[in-house]
Amino acid sequence: MLFFTVSYFVFFLCTLTCFYTFPVRFRKPLLLAASYFFYMSWNWKFIPLLLTLTIIDFVAAIWIEDRLGARRKLALVVSLASNLGFLGIFKYYNFAASNVALLLGFPANRFYHDIVLPLGISFHTFQSISYVVDVYRGEQKAIRKPLDYALFIAFFPQLVAGPIVRARDFFRDLYTWKAPDSGEIKHGTFLVVLGLAKKVALADNFALISDRYFNAVASQPGGAAAWGGVFAFAMQIYFDFSGYTDMAIGFARVLGFHFPVNFRQPYLAISITDFWRRWHISLSSWLRDYLYIPLGGNRDGKLMTYRNLMLTMLLGGLWHGANWNFMIWGAYHGAVLSLERLFGQAKHRERGWSIGDVPRALFTFVLVSVGWVFFRAANVHDAFFVIGNMLRMPRGRWPVEPALMALAGIALLAALWEDQRPLLESVRRAPTWAVATCLGTLLFAVEIFGVEGNIPFVYFQF
Amino acid sequence: MTTAVKVHREARSRISRFLRAPERAALAKILSLSLTTLVVLFLLDAVVFRSGFYARYIEPNSAAGDFETIFHADQKNRFVRPHHALVLGDSQIGEGFSAQVANEIEASSGWEFLAGGIGGASMRNWYYLLRDLDPDRSRFDVVVLPLRGYADVDDGEVRADRELDIRWMIARLRLADIPELVASFPTRSIALTILRESLFEGLVYRRDLREFLRNPRARFRHLADCRLACDDSLYVYPGHSEDLRGLSMDWSTRTLHFPPNLSAVTQADMKARTDFQNWTVRGIERDYRKAWLGKIIDRYRGTHTKILIVSLPYRPLPIPLSWPLGAGSFVTEEAKNPIVTIANEHIFEDLQRPELFFDVFHMNRKGREEFSRRLAALVTQTAGGSLQ
Fold it and tell me: Residue B68 to residues A86, B132, B226: CA-CA distances in angstroms?
């Protein structure tokens, strides 16, 4: 059940109706049952895995809170080992096995096993880890009700591709839940429709172009084709993932839950440091809080800071997928972040973007786009082939049609406007008929510009 | 009476209390916002597409464009003679029947023909075409329904489930048609897609609209050219000049012998389409014919219009196989209908010759002329009631 399919909307409408009409005591079990049903609609075989991790982390957190000294640490280690162990087996086994095989002189598939990646494992394991670590640090109370904890892990709007929700945010909503007011409902519904428009009308159209390019890079030499393909992917991944996130946040909001903002106009970033404060914020802040800072952050001198940045981004790259492309992508971002620190260019703006930022924003966009080559290319060889072509004179045909360029331009203008004046605040205050007209128009754009067929969200593979 | 009022008041008060709770109020707000949004979407779609505004600009060489071309051609060449016949069909009629030839042959008899053969159109599409061509059920003296043989043979394709049908008739679809149209698709997922596409017509038009937006000026130019030429060219179209002379089949070994210079793609297509091994009568095609041709026939019940059912020359080679024509078959049942005339199934069989076809399905210019001439004669005879 993809978020943009009719079956998902039917599922959501049923869940929503039951949620708001059932007596209070049935609401949590209902949400949990709906979440498991949602997960099982993808692959019911991974429910035991989800349940196992849920039980281990639930018990471990209680142990950590109730015990002292080495036992606390042991519970933490068991929890971390379980989460990372399962993640390692399902996500990284074949990558490691093929590299070991090659090192030993065997064919790459010598130790290969046909392992299916459980949907959303990267997200729910990180969510569990942050919870257990927070309990260990004393920043979060251990949850004593198994049903509540299971709901935190499996809550369907964020189960498969985030955003990575922190326990304190989720349980604050759960324990002080109140029905959303009119502004919240408009906000949530607007996000759902906006996300749908980003995904179906924009991302999928750009996907057609980027797929055409990256699926046969060798047959499309030339700088224009390369830049066009990379630009299309840069647009695709942004509209796809931020569209998904908008929908997730919107669905949660109309149920009375508040997910963190995950994107803040990332292509307006004026440095890579700024980019990571705007892109996939729930992941970058997770990496900062649970990896970069525990490694020492910037506390132990410049060299150690660079090392920590490199390690964090390398592991961040590896989190996205088990292959060398993601490792290089992570290393590339780590290196650029380190260089920015070295030259004092790690700038960012909290608010307000001015016309004077254009050159830096353009340069940052180019840097990010070069990184996307490794993210999207089928293998390292293809990635370097594309980069080689990007460095050549722009010959060949620009593959992005003027109409799509215009749509991207409109989206950029909307992002600039949003940066100056929060759009969602206006939506909350607008009369219902005005919001409905705006949403109806957005849906009309989805109807007309939507690509036929269901193209899955990019981040579902992670 | 008093009890009824009490019960009603109590129920109203309960509902009111139920809805006043903040949770239910939130639900009501969500549902009303969603519903209003859908209404706005529906209205926008209706203004642009359902109103017929966009249909004026669709690509003439598309499924819906071909469908509409029949109406444009009909408006241009209004009948002047006293008797009128319509020949419905798909590309086999589009290629195989010429209204011009038929009209020339029957110039003195007072008959005039309209060719309603549209490439890819199904029997479901024929119904909607006919409904709008003849809204008063009084225009045609004869409506010809061509079949590929009288036995209701299932060749593997479930025509009742053909999702693409909506693309031909989208500009003719009315809101009132939706329930029946959706119900006519046996597979639930396809029926749901049709429901979505018939409620929000932009989903069907969007590919064409995107093409249009890519170069609006070119579309306007093409449309203007087409209004001058396409509608007439449908009438004067002479047909393909190539033929399949040299094509033969050894039925004992089921081997096709192809004429020289026939492309590998055409050869493969022919092989695939002459594999009759798995063709059986399972009732799927029968039900489909009964549903849509039955609707066409029912439409003319009690009118002066006669329905003529003919078996088309539909292969470049005669097929030495036959399928049973059971008691419940479409043709057998309709034979009892007083407004229906069933032509002899073998009347055009001699036209199934390689020299009269240009591919595995379609007659060439020579075949077109011969078939048109003979069908025109058959139609005039039908009107006289002299057919067996």
Answer: 60, 11, 12
